[in-house]
Amino acid sequence: MKSEDTPFEGGPMDGRVLPVLLGITGHPPKTYRIPVPDPHGGPPTVLVYRRVPRGPGKVGLTNRWKYAYDPEGAPTRRLNWPWSKPDATKPDATPPGKRDDADG
User: Fold this and answer.
1) Which residues pair with 31 in a beta bridge?
2) What gap in Å lies between CA 78 and CA 82, rounded to an integer?
3) Rounded distance between C-alpha atoms, residue 96 and residue 89, angstroms
4) Which of 104, 100, 102, 33 minimizes the C-alpha distance to 69?
């Protein structure tokens, strides 16, 4: 498998360059998670880094990436297909069979 030396910015990994495996498209994963063991035997802390463009590449295309620290570690967004059911966790989701106030 191919790998690419990818720099990390921010957080505890700031300034380090690690070899990251590339996917079938030739790009590293969008999210890179690093579990850090707890010294007291508790659950590990997970550092989350998001892939961002490193800079302009050849002919204006971005072909190089770097990882930026995401302190909140928000989960990645799921695909929202038109035929998907509404997400019950969203506060603005209207239960099925009930009308919204905007409908009149």
Assistant:
1) 50
2) 13
3) 14
4) 33
- Enter the pTM of the model: 0.65
The predicted-structure confidence for 52-66, as pLDDT tens digits, reads as follows: 988 776 666 656 899
| Percent of the chain residues topping a pLDDT of 90 | 35
Whole-number pLDDT of residue 81: 76
Strand, helix or coil at 59? helix
Q: CA nearest 16: which of 49, 44, 38, 39? A: 49
pLDDT value of residue 91: 59
Spatial separation of the C-alpha atoms in residues 46 and 37, rounded to whole Å: 9
